Amino acid sequence: MLDAAGNGTQAPGVRAVSTPAPQSGFAPWKDKTKPPIVRFENVSKRFGNYTAVDNITLDIYEREFFALLGPSGCGKTTLLRMLAGFEKPTEGRIIVNGKDTTGMAPYERKGVNMMFQSYALFPHMTVERNIGFGLRQEGMAKDEIAARVAEAIAMVDLGRFATRKPHQLSGGQQQRVALARAIAKKPRIMLLDEPLGALDKKLRNHAQFELMRIQESTGTTFVIVTHDQEEAMTVASRIAVMDHGKLVQVSTPGEIYETPQSRYVAEFIGEVNLLEGKVVNIEGGAADIAFAADGTIFKTRSIDGLAKDQQVWLALRPEKVRVSLDKPTDCPNSVAGKVVDIGYLGSITHYHVQLPSGQKMTALRANAAHAVERTVNWDDDVWLSWPSEAGIVLTR
Amino acid sequence: MRRWYLISIPYIWLVVFFLVPFLIVLKISFSQTAMAIPPYIPVLDLSRGIDGLKDFFSHLSFDNYRFIFSDSLYINAYISSVKIAAIATFLTLLVAYPVAYGMARAPKEWQPTLVMLVILPFWTSFLIRVYAWIGILKKEGLLNLLLMNLGLISEPLTIMNTTTAVYIGIVYSYLPFMILPLYASLEKINPSLLEAAADLGSPPIRSFWQVTFPLSLPGIIAGCFLVFIPAVGEFVIPDLLGGSETLMIGKTLWTEFFSNRDWPVSSAVAVILLLVLVIPIVLFQRSQQTQREAGA
C-alpha cells in the first residue's frame, strides 16, 4: 500500500493541473438540459449469488473521457461489458443515444466499439486485415475500406508494420493495432478495458497521452476501465470510483483528490493521513474536532450535515502537512511526533512521523530551494502542522 | 557421449524394426515367385562368395512392378483406396468438428473428462469394436431392428458388406484421431477473439467462418492426415464390413500374400503403397513444421 500510494502522491498533484487545455471549461455533466450519450438506469448484474454490479445509475456525456476506477473485482469491467453487450444486466436498463440497448447483441450495437485488455487481435490476419475487419462487416466498398484503414494506421503510426502479423509485433505495437481497429469503425463511444495494463510504465505514460490526443482529435466519447488511479487521473475528464459493485464517488480528478467523500476514495486516490476524532464544535463554516488519541483540537472547514459528537476522520494530503523542528506559531493545527523514516526522492522528500499514540503520519516536502530550516533527521522530535483549510472532514 | 547413447536407442529401434524389415520387403519385391520355402528366388547364398552375390543381383528385376502397372486391378485398388480414405476422412471431419467444438466450449472443469471419454474406446481391442459393428449393421442387426420398430422403414436396409459400412467403420474407428487435434486447436482460441469479432459487427456464424475456422485449420490438417494416412492402407475394416464391391489395396495385398502366396508381387504392392503415402506424410510433416515456426 505504501508503495502504491507513494507513487500516487506525486503524480495526481502534478498531473491533475496539467489536464490539456481543450478540456478546461468542459463540464457537460453540470448542464441539466444536455442529454447523456450513455445512461445506466438502476443497473445490476448478478452471477449466481455474487453481485458484480449493484444498482448503478450513471450518466456519461458526449466527448467525455470517462474512467471507471476501482480494485479488481469491483465490477468496473462487468459494467463496461454490459455497455458493449457481452453481458446482459440482471436488472435495469442501459440507454445509449436515447435508445434502450439492454437486450441487444454486441454486433447489433452500431457506434459502440471496444478495445480489449488482451487486445484480441486476430492472429491469422495482418495488421491491415485486423484493422479492416470491422469495416468489412459493414459491407463497405473496398477502396473506402483501404482509405479508412490507411487513416487509422497513420493515426497510430504503424505504417511500417501494415503487412505484419500480430505475433511479429511488440506489446506496444499490438496495443496500437487494437486501438486502430476499434477507431477505424469511427464509433461514437469507445470502450477501453485496461487498455494499457500490459505495457511497462514508460510506454504507458506515452500511450496515455496518445489516447488523449486521439480522443480529442476524433471527438469520440471514451469510457476506460482501469485499476491504476494515476492513469485515471491523467486521462479522464471524470472518474467513477467503484467498490463492491457500487459507485462510491463520481467527480473530476481534481475533486476526487481534493474533496473525497469517503475514506475509501481518499485512500484509493493518492496517499492520505486520516486522523480519527469527534466533532466538538461547529461554528459558521468551521468545525473543531477533538483528536481521538489525545484530545488535541483540530480546526478545520465544516461540511454539510455535520453534527456535534459525530465520529469523523480528518483527511490530510501529505503535501499539505508541514514538518518543522520547532512548534509553529502561525498555524492553528499541530501535532508532535518523532521522525521514523525519510524517503528522499530528489524532487520531494517523504517524512514518516510517528505520533505518541503510535499512529504514523506522512508529510511531503518539495525540495524547491535550499532548506531554510535546519535539516530534519531520523529520530528528530518534530512538529507537523497544517492550516485549517488543508484538511477535509470525512464521515464515512 | 552419454547423450549419444540415449539418442541412439530410438534410432537402433527404428533401424532394427523398421528399416531392416523394409529393406527385406524391398528385396522380395524385386524377386521371383518360386515353389519353395521361402516362396521366392533368389535367396542370398554367401557360401558361394562373390559369384553367389553376382548371381543374386542378376536375378533381381522390376518385373513385379511392371506387372502391377500393367494390371488395372492394382491401379484401381490404389485409386479406390485413396478415394475411400479421402471421403471417409471428410466424413470423419464432419462428425468430429461439432464434437471437438462442443468439447472446447464446455466448462473448463469438464474438459479433461470429455477428452478421457474420447479416448475411452481405445481400452477395447480395435478388432472387437469393428466386429461389434457387424452386429449393428447386419440385416437382422440392431440398427435395422430399431428403425423397423420405430416404423421408419418396412424392409431392412442392406448396409453390411457395402462401402457404406466401410465408411461407417472408418469414421467410427478413426474419430478420436480427428477429434483430439481439432480440440487442441479449438481450445487454444482465445474467447475474446470472438467477442472482438462480435464487437466489430460480425454475427456468430460469420465469426465462425472468419475467426474460428481459419484458426482451427492446423487441427483440421493434422486430423485429416492422421485419419487419411492409415485409412488408405486399412485392411481390417473393409475385410470385416465391406463386400466384394469394396476394392481396397490392403485387402488386395492380403489376398496376394495369403491366398496367392505371391510374396514378391505383394511386396511390390506394399512398396508402392508406401510411396503413395510418402507424399501426404511429407506434406503433414511440412505443415507441422510451419505451425511450430509460426507458434514460436
Structure description:
The complex is a heterodimer of chains A (396) and B (296). Chain A folds into two domains: 2-111 and 187-267, Rossmann fold (3-Layer(aba) Sandwich), CATH 3.40.50; 272-394, RNA polymerase II/Efflux pump adaptor protein, barrel-sandwich hybrid domain (OB fold (Dihydrolipoamide Acetyltransferase, E2P), Beta Barrel), CATH 2.40.50. Helix content of chain A is 25%, strand content 32%. Chain A is built from nine helices and 20 strands. A six-stranded mixed β-sheet of chain A has the order 6-7-8-3-9-10, with helices on both faces. Chain A has a five-stranded antiparallel β-sheet with strand order 13-12-11-14-20, with no helix packed on it. Chain A has a five-stranded antiparallel β-sheet with strand order 15-19-16-17-18, with no helix packed on it. In chain A, a hairpin with a 2-residue loop joins strand 4 (91-96) and strand 5. Chain B has a single domain (67-295), classed as MetI-like fold (Orthogonal Bundle). Chain B has a two-stranded antiparallel ribbon with strand order 1-2. In chain B, a hairpin with a 6-residue loop joins strand 1 (32-33) and strand 2. At the A-B interface, helix 3 of A face helix 9 and helix 10 of B.
